[in-house]
Design a protein that fits this description.
Distance between the termini: 35 Å
Pfam family, one: Autoind_synth
Protein name: N-acyl-L-homoserine lactone synthetase
GO molecular function: transferase activity
CATH class: Alpha Beta
Strand content: 25-35%
Order of helices and strands: HEEEEHEHEHEEE
Organism: Neptunicoccus cionae
CATH architecture: 3-Layer(aba) Sandwich
CATH superfamily: Gcn5-related N-acetyltransferase (GNAT)
Structural class: alpha+beta
Number of strands: 9
Family: Belongs to the autoinducer synthase family.
Number of domains: 1
Helix content: 25-40%
Length: 191
């Protein structure tokens, strides 16, 4: 929120791209008004990261501290565990959801279809580096998030310091898993 004004229409564009990615392409049932996708986790506690090329959004993510509290909501994984989100299973973690300034949640992670196949690994690498750098600057040691089960394949390829933090679960037609990622990374450039 503090520097959103410096980026012109980027936040507006991000919410439109999220609508295309999550609602139109993936078919998720999410809140949408006037062409934007947003929910209760897009609040002043969150940070939004956007990778773009000359204003064209290539990838993005929302980061939220696990200490966030906005009305009855905290962060997506914890609220799912608490039974507040009917579309996400409550047994997606191996333990109680963390509430700590040292842990931030990454959600609404995407790379657009506009990114050519030859560039996708590089864009994913840049996005992961941006996620861990931003969380680290906020004081986090770890980032937690729901990721496609295939994350293991590219996390090994990128030599990420990460691991499963929950069992495989189907969410919105995709096989997913909660993963925990250390924030101080030295990611290879995907080559």
């Amino acid at each position: 929120m503090a520097n959103m004004h410096k980026y012109g229409e980027m936040f507006h564009d991000l919410l439109q791209v999220r609508r295309r990615v999550f609602i139109e392409k993936r078919g998720w049932e999410l809140p949408s008004v006037d062409g934007y996708e947003f929910d209760q986790y897009d609040n002043p506690y969150s940070r939004w990261l956007v990778l773009h090329r000359y204003g064209e959004i290539l990838a993005g993510v929302r980061l939220t501290p696990t200490t966030a509290q906005c009305g009855i909501y905290t962060y997506m994984i914890r609220d799912a565990q608490r039974g507040l989100l009917e579309d996400i299973p409550s047994d997606l973690l191996i333990c109680e959801a963390p509430v700590s300034p040292k842990v931030w949640e990454a959600s609404r992670i995407f790379v657009t279809d506009d990114v050519p196949a030859r560039d996708r690994l590089l864009v994913r690498t840049q996005l992961l580096q941006a996620i861990t750098d931003a969380a680290y600057r906020e004081g986090a040691k770890f980032v937690i998030g729901i990721v496609p089960y295939l994350w293991k394949r590219w996390s090994r390829r990128l030599d990420l310091d990460s691991g499963a933090f929950g069992p495989k679960r189907e969410i919105a037609g995709e096989v997913c898993q909660v993963a925990l990622l250390k924030t101080k990374l030295n990611i290879s450039k995907g080559n």
